[in-house]
Amino acid sequence: MIYCPKCANTLIERPVDGSVRKTCSLPECGFVHWDNPIPGVAGLVQYDNNIILARNTKWPGGLFSIITGFLEKNEMPEAAVARELKEELGLECDVQALIGHYPFPEMNQILIAYWLNGSGNLNLGEEIAETKIVSLDSLKHYDFTPLYLTEKIVKDWFQVLPISKK
């Protein structure tokens, strides 16, 4: 960001509330670019007692993760993750539980992760190149490298999973 979205003057960096932030060069404007994280959602999808992993069309072959997407304006996180599952895999879902929230500083995001029970016919959306169905046992040992955040979400999921399904 180079120019102020309020008055079109050049942005400069200066200390604001203990951090260096981009601010409008015109003092009367008062614009501060806070650069807060963008909220996103993630869904670990259980499907016929297995887990669906997906590869984004922009990723190299062999790299699979859980379903992710962004929160839209006025959308609750549970609705966003259900919408993303429908758009990306064509599935309906029941949200089973919140797994947790995860900072993703490299992308200036925070992800809110859920465990979903997916149903219906798998139908790939335009963002997904392929899927992989893995058993719960295989998921425990799956190598998500370099997707450290996916690995953390999956490990945490095994902590919230009901005892009867472990």
Detailed description of the structure:
The chain is built from 3 helices and 9 strands. It is elongated, with a radius of gyration of 19 Å. The mean pLDDT is 94. With 166 residues, it is of the alpha+beta class. The protein is 19% helix and 40% strand. It folds into 2 domains: 1-35, Ubiquitin Ligase Nedd4, Chain: W, CATH 2.20.70; 38-161, Nucleoside Triphosphate Pyrophosphohydrolase (Alpha-Beta Complex), CATH 3.90.79.10.
What are its keywords?
40% strand, alpha+beta
What's the layout of helices and strands?
Blueprint: E1 11-16, E2 19-24, E3 32-33, E4 38-47, E5 50-56, E6 67-70, H1 77-89, E7 92-104, E8 109-119, E9 128-135, H2 136-140, H3 148-160
Parallel strand pairs: 4-8
Antiparallel strand pairs: 1-2, 2-3, 4-5, 4-6, 5-9, 7-8
Described by strand count, sense and barrel closure, the largest sheet is:
6 strands, mixed
CATH class of the largest domain: Alpha Beta
For the record, give the distance between the C-alpha atoms at the N and C termini, rounded to a whole number: 48 Å
The CATH architecture classification of the largest domain is Alpha-Beta Complex
Count the E strands. Answer: 9
Give the tally of structural domains: 2
For the residues shown, what is the average pLDDT? 94
**Helix fraction bin:** 10-25%
Low-confidence stretches: none
Q: Assembly type of the shown chains?
A: single chain
Computed structural class:
alpha+beta
- Count up the helices: 3
Instruction: Indicate the radius of gyration in whole angstroms.
Output: 19 Å
CATH topology of the largest domain: Nucleoside Triphosphate Pyrophosphohydrolase
What percentage of the residues does DSSP assign to strands (E)?
35-45%
The CATH H-level superfamily of the largest domain is Nucleoside Triphosphate Pyrophosphohydrolase
Following the backbone from N to C, one meets helices and strands in this order, namely EEEEEEHEEEHH
Give the overall shape, derived from the CA principal axes: elongated
